[in-house]
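From the pipeline queue, job 12 of 40. The input is one protein chain; the requested action is below.

Action: predict structure.
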Amino acid sequence: MACRRDVLIFISLFTLIYGEVKVIEINVSKYEGLKSSQLNNREKQKQFYDFQFCMCPRAVQLHSQPWATSRCQCKPTIKGKRVIDSIPYAIFPMSCVSEVNPHNCLRASFKKTNNERVFVKVSIGSLTSVTLPLWQELPLDRMKNSRSLTTGTGTPFKINYDVITYSPFSSKESQVMNVWKPKSMKTSLFNLLFKRNIEEPDFKITSMEKTQRHRVVKAINSAPWTKDDITSVARYTTIQQIREALFRQSLKDRIMPTSFDVRLFKEELTTYHNIFRSRHGAPPLEYDYTLERAAQNWANSLGSRRSCLVHEVPRRYGENLFYFGAKKFPSAHVMAQLITQSFYMEGVGYDYN
C-alpha cells in the first residue's frame, strides 16, 4: 500500500507541476529599422538584423544585468531581413503564426512555467549593437503588442509582435482560433484560409454579438449620411474615373501609406455600403470579426502570388479586388467612398438581400 501511495503522490505532483507548463511563442509581424542616414557605413546596409530572445525568471533584470543570460532560456540568434530591406520597415506574413518558415518568419518559442519575462536583443551582424540597453523587455500581456526599443541613435526601433500561449498537450491552432469559429461553411480554399490565423480582436469581448453590434452602430452613426455624400458617390460611372479621382485626391491629401487610418477606413466602408443598401431597402451590414479575418487571410493569399489580382476558381464567393498603389494616399473617407462605388459597378445584378 505504501508503494502504491507513493506512486499516486508522484503522479499527482507530476500532473500538478506539468499542468502549469505552457508554451509561449513570440511572432514578430513587423519592425521599423534604422534610417539610412543613421548608418554611415554602406557595408552595414547589406548586413542582416540579428534578433535574440531570452526568457528569464522574474528576479533576473537582464536589461541591467546582461551577463545573467546563463540563468535564462536563450534561443540562438535569428536573422531578420537585410538592413537595406528594412527601410522604412520589414513585414512578415501572417502565416508565421501557424507555420514555420525560417526564411520568412521571425519567431521564438519557450516553455513557460511561472511569471517569467521575455527580453530581446537586436544587432546588425555580430559586432554592431542596435538596442541600448543591450537587452530590453517585451510585454506579454496582450496577444498583439507593439514596443519601441531604445537605441543609441536616439530613434526608437519599433517592433510589432503576436504572443500565443498554449498547452503542450493541445494544438496551437485550437488556441489561436479560440472562440472565433464559423457556424457553417463550405470547403474551399477561402475556407481553409479562414480556419487559420484567427487572432484576438483589439477590443474587449464580453458578449460577442452584443459588443460587436454596439461597436458597429456607433461606427455607422458617426458619419451621418447627407445628400451631398450620396450624390458624390454616384457621380462616377467607370473604374477609370475612380482611379483618376483617387489619384487626384492623393495629390491633395498626401497621406503616407504607413499613416493611413485603417480603423476609420473600415468604419467608412461600412457606412458607404449601407448607403447603397438603403437605396434598395436592404438591411444595414453589421461588423463581423470572423468574416473580416477570413477576408484578410484570403487577401494575404492573393497578395503572395506573382499575379495577385485573380479570382478564386471555382468562384463560390463575390470578390471586389481593388488595388491602389501610390507613394501618397487620399483620406480614409475618400478611399472608402470610391472603393465602395467600384464594388457595385462590378456587381451587376447584385442581390442586396
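Job complete. The two ends are 71 Å apart (CA to CA).
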